[in-house]
Amino acid sequence: MFKRLLMLSDAGSKNLRQAIIACTISNLTLMLPFIILLQVIVSLITPLTNHLAVNKSYLWLMVGLGILSSLLFLLCYQREYKKTYASAFGQAANTRIEVAEKIRKLPLSFFNRKDLSELTTNIMGDCATIENMLSHVVPQLIGYSCSSVITCVLLAFYDWRMASAIFCTLPIAFLIVIIGKGFEKKLGEKQLQSKLAVSNEVQEYLDGIKIIKGFGISGEKFKTLDRALKNMMWAAIKFEGISGIFVTLSTMVLKVGLGVVVLVGVKLIVIGSLDPITFLAFIVIGSRIYSPLISVLTLLPELFYMLTSIERMKSLQTESTMEGRNDVLFKDFSINIDHINFSYKQKSVINDLSCVIPSNKMTALVGPSGSGKSTLLQLIARFWDVDKGMITIDGNDIKTIDPETLMLSMSFVFQNVILFDDTILNNIRIGRHDASDEEVKLAAKKARCDELIARLPHGWDTLIGENGSKLSGGERQRISIARALLKNAPIVLLDEATASLDPENEVYIQQAISELVKDRTVIVIAHRLKTIITADQIIVLDKGSIVEQGSYQQLIDNNGLFTRLYSLQKQQFSISN
Ligand SMILES: Nc1ncnc2c1ncn2[C@@H]1O[C@H](COP(=O)(O)OP(=O)(O)OP(=O)(O)O)[C@@H](O)[C@H]1O
Question: What is the pLDDT of residue 468?
Answer without folding.
Answer: 67
